[in-house]
Amino acid sequence: MGNDLSGRRALVTGAGHGIGAAIALALAEAGADVAVGYGRSAVAAREVAALAAEHGVRATAIGADVTVTREVDALVLGAVEFLGGLDIVVCNAGHLVGRQTVEQMGDEHFDAVVSVNLGSTFRTVRAAIPHLRSSPAGRVVTMASLAAHNGGGPGSSVYAAAKAGIIGLTKGLAKELAADAITVNALAPGFIGNTAFHDTFTPTETQQTIVAGIPLRRAGTADEVASAVVWLCSDGAAFVTGSTVDIDGGAWVR
Fold first, then answer.
1. Is 159 an annotated catalytic residue?
2. Which end of the chain is more exposed for a tag (fewer CB within 10 A), N or C?
3. Catalytic residue (one of 38, 122, 159, 191)
């Protein structure tokens, strides 16, 4: 059983660059029509949509602030109107925001980190559920992190907590939506190289130390995360729900 997604209609949030862009392109390569959700990277998101369309599928870019309910609702509705429905939702949007210890952290920073990670996932899935119910093969993929398992690096405790919350939300949603044959699974990437996330928040020497501690002795790639998304959205993963797939080179062996 292959990963053919021809005719499926997908929305990917945070897809203007990095992992999200790789996911949108991988879904398009597998045959899915794609709505590329973005926050601030409008030009890059349009480029991703154009590249997706080269695979012979329909693709568009739609902007939204995923921390604002009305904008998320409009994002989902815009995707549904363009695609003619919705079969796949990938909640990739998220952000570390900044490294701060809990002791130094104010409520504003805490709320921002939780809102852009856990909150955005909640808002996106909530808006998408009525449309996914109309799909014969509804799929939701959420984005957790290795940090959800190990507490994250320095100054990322609340980010780790938000990502752990995504895993809990994923499990609960899997139970809630099972009767509608909608599967809900999480991905937990470890160190993925060549992304704005680590280029912004992780010094080069620290990155080298992290890679040295990975059993496979290399960083992961955005395409490897995207491949897992395609599989979870395929017919071959129809009996997989409520699971968290670790993509970390063996950094967190359970």
1. yes
2. C
3. 159
